[in-house]
Amino acid sequence: MNNLNFVDLLTQQFSGDTAEMIGQQLGLDKGTTQLALSQFLPVIATALANNSANEEGASSLYNAVEQDHDGSIMNNLMGFLGNFSQGPGAGILGHVFGNQMGQIAEFVSKNTGIDTSTAQNLMQIAAPMVMGLLGQQQRSQGLTQQGLSQFLNASVQDVQRTDPKNMGLIGKLLDRNNDGNVFDDVASLGMSFLKNWMNGRN
Fold this sequence. Notes:
The structure is a single chain. The chain is mainly alpha-helical. The chain has one domain. The protein is 73% helix and 0% strand. It contains eleven helices and no strands. α3 packs across α9. The protein is globular.
């Protein structure tokens, strides 16, 4: 069993050449791409954990991973990136975030300086890769439906212990009921996550 939590696994997998390839597809430099990914990956990991916290959500996620996401997407990244708009990204984002997709794209945009359209495209690229990597973990660890939910929730709790401020802000973003402006609080978030991305949290 890999002893890294899922957020750290995502950070590892989306670094280096992968970040550079995604950036080339979107017209971004590697540094900006890494910054944008460092905003989005903890958000989608937290949302997946939240969604799997109840029986219905856990079942839906497990079935999706079991049936459609075996990680093979990582074996042909160039093919996927060249045609990502035709891929499953938009559908995955809809299932994970529902009507909050626009808010998440705005969150990524405000922390990186990229426009919201580019942020949405980055999310659409990353989401199927995240699900593929989750499928790899499910298979390699032999995770049951309950085990998959526990893996995600334990991963998020691990990051919350080491980075409570930023993960608390992500929690507020995902729980937002349009009764306040969480974006007022994001000024320092981008560089903090990027520092964690580059240096690790250990």
